[in-house]
Specification:
Length: about 220
């Protein structure tokens, strides 16, 4: 397999950018959500899910794994295929991978509202306006008391304080924020503390920037 995002996923194995520790933090927030979920089905969605290793890893061995119905959306066919195979290997047929643009709400029809929304690996690749816009629309994807887990690098200028504020302004409370030591990686988790808004098709949330314009890529290219 090759391609930009397939190569990006290899960093989980080769120690790049603290991604493995970022993954542990994301999975920790997911497991905490599952631990506290009331009995019954748990609905999850993942925007730009990659191969879904965050959710699948968190479900491995978790007593609520079979209660989770998830739709994971990504635009890279190889990663979607890898995710589908991994979910089947784990015996989790209710974890569905969809090849589609996750920057628009359409692929989440019938999967929203969700109790768990993953937005990991997005906010470093889009404009600040798109981050604000995505957060503003998250209540349309969320069920009551939903947990949102998100990531953003803390490279200069560090936007994470602003992002955390945007979540609060939108009616979320912060469950936690973890800055991974010795890296710029960071993970946040928030709970919807206001009424969800109705799901709507056709809402544009974000558009990935061309590679050289992405904040995460520009930060790597900048002199120390
Ligand atoms: C930085 S990776 C994050 C993957 C995963 N969420 C994680 O944290 O391990 C970004 C992902 O976004 C996907 N992607 C890029 N543009 C997309 C779009 N418009 N819709 C869905 N997925 C997209 C890529 O294929 C890639 O898997």
């Amino acid at each position: 397999m090759s391609g930009e995002w397939v190569d990006w996923h290899r960093q989980y194995e080769n120690g790049g950018r603290g991604l493995a520790r970022r993954l542990e933090a994301v999975q920790g927030f997911i497991r905490a959500m599952l631990d506290g979920a009331p009995p019954g089905p748990i609905r999850a969605i993942s925007l730009c899910a990659g191969d879904g290793r965050d959710l699948l890893g968190a479900l491995a061995g978790h007593p609520r794994a079979e209660d989770v119905r998830a739709r994971l959306v990504d635009a890279t066919p190889e990663l979607v295929d890898a995710g589908r195979r991994a979910a089947l290997r784990q015996g989790l047929p209710a974890i569905e991978f969809v090849l589609a643009d996750a920057g628009i709400t359409d692929p989440f029809e019938d999967a929203a509202p969700a109790d768990l929304v993953l937005a990991c690996g997005i906010f470093g690749n889009v404009t600040n306006d798109d981050i604000r816009n995505t957060i503003r629309h998250l209540p349309e994807l969320c069920a009551r008391d939903a947990t949102v887990v998100w990531t953003r690098g803390r490279f200069a200028p560090d936007l994470t304080p602003t992002i955390r504020g945007w979540f609060l302004e939108t009616g979320f409370v912060e469950l936690g924020f973890i800055a991974i030591p010795d890296t710029t990686a960071a993970v946040g988790a928030n709970r919807l503390d206001t009424l969800p808004a109705p799901y709507r098709r056709g809402i544009r949330l974000f558009t990935f920037l061309p590679r050289e314009e992405r904040p995460s890529v520009r930060a790597q290219a900048a002199p120390p």
